[in-house]
Each structure stands twice: as structure tokens, then as C-alpha cells.
Amino acid sequence: LEDVSAHLICLPYDRAGVGDHIMVVGLVAEADVHRPGRPLLYHQGRFGRFLAHPDH
Predict the structure, then answer these.
(1) Can you say whether the dihedral through the CA atoms of 16, 18, 19, 20 is positive or negative?
(2) Confidence of residue 27 (pLDDT cuts 50, 70, 90)
(3) What sequence ranges are listed for the domain Flavin reductase like (predicted)?
(4) Does the residue 31 lie in any domain?
């Protein structure tokens, strides 16, 4: 994807049938922020933001 604020690289973790869809769950292996901004993050029914891990 071009012109993105951030990206996540995930490893396959699990998948499950949900109605007539297949839900794929990934384990985040790498995350990177490319430029200043407010990347959109949606997790557990809420919107949030990315923060640097304190060890990095």
C-alpha cells in the first residue's frame, strides 16, 4: 500500500468460521510508523492509537 501512516506485519495465528466468512487472526511480528500522523487503530470494539513500546 502506498502513502500509509503505519503498517503491521503479522504471522498467521488462527482462523475460524464466522457465519459465511472466515476470520483470520494474525500475531503481530513487526510494526512501523512511516510518517507523523494519527494512524487509525481499531481493537476490541474501540478506536485507539499506536504507541512506542517502552523497551524500544
Answers:
(1) negative
(2) very high
(3) 1-49
(4) yes
Bridge partners, residue 48, by sequence: 41
Q: Are 23 and 6 in contact (CB under 8 A)?
A: no
Report the C-alpha dihedral over residues 50, 52, 54, 56, rounded to 10 degrees.
150
Query: Cell 510518517 belongs to which residue?
Result: 35
What is the per-residue pLDDT for 6? Answer: 82
- Give the chain's domain count: 1
Tens digit of each residue's pLDDT (9 = 90 or more) over 37-55: 776 788 889 988 777 778 8
Domain of 17 in residue numbering reads as: 6-48
